[in-house]
Amino acid sequence: MLRGGPIASIILDSGDFYSRLEDILKRMLTCVPERSNSLDLSRLPAEYLLTEKECAQALNCSARTLQSWRGRKSVLRFKRINGRAIRYVVADVRKLINDSGHINTSGGSGQ
After folding, report:
1. How many angstroms separate the CA atoms of 79 and 9, rounded?
2. Mean confidence (pLDDT) of the chain
């Protein structure tokens, strides 16, 4: 038989246990940010350089689409670092999103 102390206060009946567990889980869920497939650009500084994968995630498009846009050199500016690594400036990605309202991946004028 338990005699008081910290362990005695932990022992609960099943109804009280599940009620407390539900309260704890609700509090935990309010602390966890909602997961999303897109990257939140608002939390990044304007001069931050995005990788190809991060940029594709922010624009909700594929890396292949970005490669195609690089070939056209008119959709989104990019920087080549050390002759190999491709990076996109957050400010340019934000501008593309704000100017177009949507991303046209077909390459046509949309008319």
Report:
1. 61
2. 78
